[in-house]
């Protein structure tokens, strides 16, 4: 049980670590267009991301799939940049006639979250495999690590929605401005990660 808790803590620390903030940025970009009242939609969105990264985390850790680590490290900030850029087209739904369009946009976001989760899962597996080393039993550490990731992910989502509640409901600020500012900051940081990626620099030479 002690080992289970150790890997659970490692998973939590990995996704919430400010020094490795790429996964934090992605979760923030995912949640930027939602309010606290839309927590159900956020839950579906986060679940889609969880399904995606759980699949590749397990497959990569069990060595059922092979990939270039440096390519994944480049693709992760690209997924953040795409998600943040998509937020710039946010339109607040104010009429029932727009609800069908909103549902279509939500389905697209769910699909992207799951697809991008597949990429992030491979990134998570790089760290987990470095921790496991030659350890024979990997199923239990894998499960514990993934649960730790989910707890950390839910913490980030909760803080993001609470911050949105303060800004939008208590301070009564513009929702569109909030989305654009948050997404702009995330996009800028993600673009910096892409530009400074060593693999990209090598490819561009």
Automatic annotation (TrEMBL):
The keyword Zinc-finger does not apply. The chain crosses the membrane at residues 20-36, 43-65, 71-90, 110-131, 151-171, 178-195. It comes from the Bacteria. It comes from Spirosoma profusum. This is HupE/UreJ family protein. Pfam families: HupE_UreJ_2. InterPro entries: Put_HupE_UreJ. Keywords: Membrane, Transmembrane, Transmembrane helix. The keyword Transmembrane applies.
């Amino acid at each position: 049980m002690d080992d289970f808790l150790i890997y659970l803590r490692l998973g939590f620390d990995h996704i919430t670590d400010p020094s490795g903030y790429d996964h934090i940025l992605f979760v923030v970009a995912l949640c930027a267009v939602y309010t606290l009242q839309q927590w159900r939609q956020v839950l579906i969105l986060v679940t889609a991301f969880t399904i995606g990264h759980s699949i590749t985390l397990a497959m990569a850790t069990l060595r059922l799939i092979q990939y270039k680590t440096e390519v994944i490290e480049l693709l992760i900030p690209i997924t953040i940049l795409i998600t943040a850029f998509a937020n710039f087209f946010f339109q607040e739904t104010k009429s029932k006639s727009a609800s069908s369009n909103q549902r279509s946009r939500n389905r697209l976001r769910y699909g992207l979250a799951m697809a991008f989760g597949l990429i992030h899962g491979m990134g998570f597996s790089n760290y987990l495999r470095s921790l496991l080393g030659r350890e024979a039993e990997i199923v239990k550490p894998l499960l514990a690590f993934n649960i730790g990731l989910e707890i950390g992910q839910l913490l980030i989502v909760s803080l993001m929605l609470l911050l949105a509640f303060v800004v939008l409901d208590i301070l009564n600020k513009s929702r569109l401005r909030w989305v654009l500012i948050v997404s702009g900051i995330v996009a800028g940081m993600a673009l910096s990660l892409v530009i400074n990626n060593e693999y990209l620099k090598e490819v561009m030479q």
